[in-house]
Amino acid sequence: MYVPPAFREDDMEKLVAFMRDNSFATVVSIMNDIPVASHIPVVVTVENGVVKLSGHLAKANSQWQSFGLGETLAIFHGPHAYISPSLYEKKESVPTWNYIAVHAYGLSQVITLEDAPELMDQMIDEMIETYDSDYKSQWEDLSDHFREGMMNGIIAFEMTVTKLEGKYKLSQNRSHYDQSNVAQSLLQSTETNVQSIGAAMKQNLETDVESSK
User: Fold this and answer.
1) Given Cys at both, which of 62, 106, 193, 206 links 161, Cβ 3.0 to 4.6 Å?
2) How many other CB atoms are found less than 10 A from the CB of residue 153?
3) pTM above the 0.85 mark?
């Protein structure tokens, strides 16, 4: 991902929090020299300072066959908004788009019920706990036959993240006046996505002010 210095975010805690808040990821890998992608929810954990992602694909989704053969990329998308040059103090400016995104690179290990039942159970438990904790008792009450049938229809994976890239493109390359004006304009929007970028810009400005004291 192209990340100019002004937009780079390296704080791992901040990136992990963002990934958890936007955990419906795009998982990309290479099969037969062709990029392939799946859109799936993942669970983000941190163990001894190492970030790990876990999730699963349908067994019929052949992308899982690429796991372990090369690097995997998980893309986490956040809010985004069009920025009109009319909001800038300098009239000779160009339009752009503000957004937040995190790229996680790493190696993925395939997990199947047949080869690693304990790891498969752990992945399912973490997924339920993260996305639907109230469903846990119902899942546990299902028959072994039904649960095993469900788990035999998927391929789980655990990805150990080796590199994180965070891009918070929030007009940091503009003047404080421009940033403040853009943020206020976005906050007045009726679109939640646009408001979220405005809120992120406002928070970033407030952080900059505090850090300069």
Assistant:
1) 106
2) 12
3) yes
